[in-house]
Design brief:
The protein is of the alpha/beta class and 153 residues long. The protein is built from five helices and five strands. The longest helix is centred in the C-terminal third of the chain and has 24 residues, at 129-152.
C-alpha cells in the first residue's frame, strides 16, 4: 500500500509555532512516527511539505500518476479557502483523509469551515500527532477491507 502524507503552509514550523495549539513536536518527528507506523502496518508512506500552493497542486497531480492508495493531508490554512488544492485533490481516485493537529472546530470561526471536508473520507482533528497516526490506521484499515471485499467478489 502506498500512502502520501501532505503538509501545507506553515506546517514546517511545527515545534516553533504556537506550542499551546500544536505542542513542541516537529514535522520531522511527525514524519518519522508516521513512516514507522506505516512500516508496522505494511504501508509505504511518502511525505511532502510546501509553503507554495502551486507546488502542492503539482505534488497532488503526481500522486495520481503514482497511483497512491490514500492521501493524508493537513493543508494548514489552505484547508479553509484553497479551492485550488481542493480541486487538485478531487482529481484523485483514492480516499483522502483530512488531518489537523488542533481541533479546528474549537478555534477561530474562520477555521471551522473546510473546503476539503466534502471530498474527504474523513476528518481527524484535535489529537496532536495522534491525528496523523489515527488517519494512517484508518487508511490502512479501509484499504484492507476493500481488498477483502474484492477477493470475495
Amino acid at each position: 500500500m502506498k500512502i502520501l502524507m501532505l503538509n501545507g503552509i506553515n506546517l514546517n514550523m511545527f515545534g516553533k509555532r504556537d506550542p499551546k495549539q500544536y505542542g513542541t513536536i516537529t514535522l520531522d518527528q511527525i514524519n518519522e512516527q508516521v513512516v514507522k507506523l506505516g512500516q508496522e502496518l505494511g504501508a509505504q508512506v511518502a511525505h511532502f511539505q510546501t509553503n507554495f500552493e502551486g507546488d502542492m497542486a503539482e505534488r497532488i497531480h503526481q500522486a495520481l500518476a503514482d497511483e497512491v492508495d490514500a492521501v493524508l493531508i493537513n493543508a494548514g490554512a489552505w484547508t479553509h479557502y484553497s479551492y485550488g488544492i481542493r480541486d487538485a485533490l478531487s482529481i484523485l481516485k483514492c480516499p483522502i483523509y483530512e488531518v489537523h493537529m488542533s481541533n479546528i472546530h474549537a478555534r477561530e470561526v474562520f477555521r471551522h469551515h473546510s473546503v476539503i471536508a466534502d471530498i474527504a473520507r474523513g476528518q481527524i482533528c484535535g489529537f496532536g500527532v495522534d491525528s496523523y497516526l489515527l488517519a494512517l490506521r484508518a487508511a490502512v484499515s479501509a484499504h484492507q477491507a476493500a481488498q477483502v471485499q474484492t477477493a470475495q467478489a
